[in-house]
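Translate sequence into structure tokens.
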Amino acid sequence: MQVAIDMGQSRTDGAAHMDLEELLATRLLVQGNSGSGKSHLLRRLLEQSAPWVQQCVVDPEGDFVTLADKFGHLVVDATRTEAELTRIAARVRQHRVSVVLNLEGLDVEQQMRAAAAFLGGMFDADRDYWYPVLVVVDEAQLFAPAAAGEVSDEARKLSLGAMTNLMCRGRKRGLAGVIATQRLAKLAKNVAAEASNFLMGRTFLDIDMARAADLLGMDRRQAEQFRDLARGHFVALGPAISRRPLPITIGAVETSARSTSPKLTPLPDAPADAADLIFTQDPKELTRPVVRRPPPPPPPSTNELLAQVARARAEREPEPTTLFPEIDEAEREETIRTVMAELMSDPDAGFRNTAQLYQDFLVRCRIRRVPGEPPALPAFKRLLAVARVAPDEETAASDGWQQALTLSETLTDDVQGVFLVLAQAALTGASCPSDATLARLYGTHSASRARRLLTWFEERGLIVLRTDFRGQRIAAFPDLGAETAPGDPAGPDILAPERGAAE
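Result follows.
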């Protein structure tokens, strides 16, 4: 069914009509400076379309509550909790009642939170209630700002997300966004870009004229006409109005706003006792509280900002609850240990760099469907160092091994595996590993580099090396109170045959 909404008069074709069905599918953006007639235009649109479609008006100034007397709109006072507003919005869609969300009296952040809750409730309504709704948002730059302002990031993200859902994803849910703004430059681009119909009113700033001309497909010289538009005069473009820029004049309305522009009135005659009227206190004034807005707090100093950042990092945020089943951490860790064992069973794993091993590890985790996020690269390096040792359960549960793990955390990632192999040999009484074995763990074929690494451990006081009368090497750990059995430094790589056989 095609419904033509009478918006007023055009300069060329007489009556200016807007196709309501096309508007519901393509959305509308209204732009104009304060006093250009935006609210008058929205009121004309609402009054003309009220008999045909359900309406929801997000009203930051309480100007549209007068629609209730003439057209039966239900006024929803926003001084409620966000949960209440969300539930009310769901019932509004269910029962198809036209409403005005009155945000008057709230500060900007409270208005943003209330509007986000209400729009979110309408957006999340059940599929059975996806009837067409004309959602009109006045002063849209408040709810979808292009840049962060004085409000908190949380409130801005909530409001911007709700406006983005309305303009980008609302069409399939029956929500047709009609947004009005004083300045296009202050409105988020991803919200403004979703509108296909435009009504551009008077504006003076070059940046706003340039954006308006760009949206209407006009060149910069034609944009100068926006400065000359009178109150209530707009340039229209869009599939619901006109395929070419069309100047129109908005028609009259049946209702009026509670607040109107101040009119000039003559001053009263100055009374003879003006001083007494001003400086003499009225007894009734004592019963009325004096309301003063508190001064803004002074800006925090640099030290206070640094302290806030330090506290924010120290305090961990509570983990959000999810609708997904909780991950069994014990099962996840066991699966990761299995993956690491498979990875280290490759005889060439000792000679592959950490980046290659990490990529192989991620692939194996996806194959085994390890739940949750895989360990990051620093955590993987730690897992790699422990997996290269793979102690038995008795050794892994001993106090000496836990102390060895603590000592290894003070070392760099590339030498932790070598240190832990030596510590395991000392705790189990095994022979001291050969240079070839230590070189493989260090990721090299050079035995001399392995010997230099042992010297580096000894210089740091972690181990004490000595040689018995047969030339066998012994590594003692003062912090662990243990030492290895004598081992041949020139012996073969004892790890390569075992891992090759395991494979």
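Note: The chain is about 40% helix and 15% strand.
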